[in-house]
Amino acid sequence: MIDLDAYLARIRLKAAPAPDAEGLAVLQRAHRLAIPFENLDVRLGRGIAIDSASVFAKLVTAKRGGYCFEHNRLFADVLAALDYAVRPLLARVWLTASEPPPLTHTLLLVTIDGAEWIADAGFGGSYCPPMPLADGAQAVAPDGARFRLRADSARGWMVERDGDPATTDGRGNGRPGFQPQFSFTTASIEQADLEMANHWTSTRPATRFLDLAVVSIALPAGFASLTDRAYRRRTPSDDVAATIADARAYRLRLSMMFGIDLSAEEVAGLGLF
Question: Which pTM does this prediction carry?
């Protein structure tokens, strides 16, 4: 059984909301504001375990972040413990893709009072609030970006985003209007499918998570990211872009902005300086 009290303390909620659509949105927003997206263990050559116990120990107990397979394993366990009907899906990320990409993302299908919703606590590129599984459904993120769900005859469903590229992790084509983020189908997914996708995503050479150290977090009205040594934070009141000069400054930024505490030896192991 998951320790709900510890999870709620981690995401800074005093109590669990009601298990309805509004409660789902409250939980996901709190999760995204509290737990960063990061692939630092991939860069450090550590395996990424996505069983429930390992994910809880890392993201909640150790107060680290993770990437989609970790975030959405934890979020699915929480939703199930709160009596939501939930199951995982696999998706293809279309940001910067020139040809059909592999299934390297996972999200959740949640059924509430007979209606299906998508929820995603682990997409590092931007923050997509829960949306009903319906063609044309839309939602607005804390940074003001709009998200839209579109039925796609070739790909099942496509999540699109219309927002400032500064409130993402830097990927995207910079074009105005709704741009594709990821596509998915509602086909049933087994744990073995997630294990295979997680293994490919965390070990295949010359891919984003092997080549870059990526950290990001949603802000109440913005987004902050750290890609290798490039730092970006955008809110309604400011837009900060900087290059981290040395390992000490990198450790401080990780801790102060993203709540991740790494040792000097671990930062050295990232190979950024």
Answer: 0.96
